[in-house]
Specification:
By secondary structure, the chain is an all-alpha fold. 68% of the residues lie in helices and 2% in strands. The chain has a two-stranded antiparallel ribbon with strand order 1-2.
């Protein structure tokens, strides 16, 4: 494969997770954390970074071990690998950011059953080189983190009048309390999915018009 083709493939593997195959807005994966912990921007970012660490490390290990993991037990092996890195993240958060760890609660442990992570091991990391697996994991986790922040930032601004715990408005601001409650997560996710799908549809229509 020539260098330009190789570069194009690397760029595609990274960028696809940000838009074309965004795990939240396109594949609709990881809905549990997307709805449960996005009441603040800090929680959204922390969950995104935790997921990034687990996904990248798991993809590296699965890609390295793909030739020695028996097919009959591959899913079990992937879950054990993922659970190991989730435990590492859990301990690191508890040690260095106990307040964030307390806010995220059980949702850190639930990263183990996030279909995004297990799905990338089965669909990509177990079939590709370490380099491509890292790019795929970084792209998908970047898309996941982007989606979490897209949900969490408006919810915190409207629901608390702050961003990353910094107050944005004066005393006259009346918070939309519903935005930091569970219904707010559904509302914001619904609006974002609507906007994302509308833009994607318009993009496809423009591409068809250019071809015709």
């Amino acid at each position: 494969m020539s260098k330009p083709e190789n570069s194009n493939q690397n760029a595609h593997e990274f960028l696809k997770g940000l838009w074309d195959e965004n795990p939240v807005f396109v594949a609709v994966l990881g809905m549990c954390p997307a709805l449960a912990v996005t009441n603040t921007a800090i929680n959204s970012l922390a969950m995104g970074l935790a997921t990034t660490f687990v996904l990248v490390c798991s993809s590296i290990l699965v890609s390295l071990l793909k030739s020695v993991i028996p097919k009959q037990v591959r899913i079990t092996a992937y879950i054990i690998i993922i659970a190991t890195f989730v435990t590492v993240v859990d301990f690191l958060l508890a040690a260095f950011t106990p307040a964030v760890h307390k806010e995220l609660g059980a949702f850190i442990a639930l990263i183990v059953v996030n279909c995004l992570i297990l799905g990338r091991q089965e669909a990509f990391a177990s079939k590709n080189t370490v380099g491509l697996s890292i790019l795929d994991a970084l792209g998908m986790s970047a898309g996941f983190t982007f989606a979490m922040l897209c949900i969490g930032i408006p919810r915190e601004i409207l629901g608390s009048g702050s961003l990353f715990d910094v107050l944005l408005f004066g005393d006259g601001f009346e918070p939309w309390v519903v935005m930091i409650l569970p219904p707010g997560g559904f509302f914001m996710l619904g609006f974002l999915l609507l906007g994302f799908n509308w833009y994607s549809q318009k993009k496809k229509e423009r591409e068809l018009m250019k071809k015709n």
